[in-house]
Design a protein that fits this description.
By secondary structure, the protein is mainly beta. Helix content is about 5%, strand content about 35%. Strand 10 and strand 11 form a beta hairpin. The two termini are about 30 Å apart.
Length: about 220
């Protein structure tokens, strides 16, 4: 189990907010859940207050989850989940974080994506932050936080932080050919930033939808 726990108090909230560098993520993810009694986007609003509308709370159901969709693969190093300040920290148990290219399905265990880390729990008190360390980093379009209890349960979260790796060069396949052009490094062709192929055919041609953002201008000197 690759997770770490950090206890927060009101004096070091600023440290936690600074710790999560959302700016490293290429763009804000589309956040969905298996069910929702409040706005799922609140898990990224950096609120650390005991007010219900600043929290994500699922319905009582089988395998509740919250999912980040980045639209294309990003390499994730770790995920941090902060517990509620007001109550219900004991609900956070048997939680699995997965990363991959398969979206979640309501009422189903995620068995298709790669396991980042599992936290047995339960959280012992409010203000806990659980760090799920993906070791090694995992690349995927989706990051999913899901409870794995054998009976209907509730997933409740205050804040979520996603730590991408500094670059994705270790995932690149060079050289690759895209639209008849041979690339030995990242390219911004038909894209808003540098990217590379992660899978090619037997002729070295880029295979559609198998790419990742490089996270750096060039991979040559890394």
């Amino acid at each position: 189990m690759h997770y770490r726990i950090k206890y927060l108090n009101h004096y070091i909230v600023a440290e936690w907010v600074a710790l999560i560098n959302y700016g490293q993520v290429p763009h804000s993810p589309d956040i969905t859940s298996s069910s929702n009694q409040g706005e799922v986007s609140y898990v990224l609003d950096k609120h650390f207050v005991a007010i219900s509308y600043a929290l994500f709370v699922s319905e009582e159901e089988m395998y509740p989850w919250i999912q980040f969709d980045y639209m294309f693969p990003v390499s994730i190093d770790k995920v941090a989940v902060a517990q509620r300040w007001d109550c219900c920290h004991g609900w956070f148990e048997h939680v699995l974080v997965t990363v991959g290219n398969h979206p979640s399905i309501k009422g189903k265990e995620d068995t298709k994506n790669s396991k980042c880390a599992y936290y047995q729990g339960p959280a012992l008190s409010p203000n806990f932050v659980v760090f799920f360390d993906c070791n090694p980093p995992i690349a995927g379009r989706y990051m999913i936080i899901q409870k794995r209890t054998p009976s209907p349960s509730v997933l409740s979260i205050n804040e979520i932080g996603v730590y991408p790796t500094g670059n994705n060069c270790h995932l690149c396949v060079f050289p690759f050919t895209y639209h008849g052009v041979l690339y030995n490094d990242c390219t911004d062709a038909i894209h808003y930033g540098p990217w590379c192929a992660t899978l090619t055919d037997s002729f070295g041609n880029y295979i559609n939808n198998n790419f990742v953002d490089c996270g750096t201008e060039s991979c040559i000197f890394l």
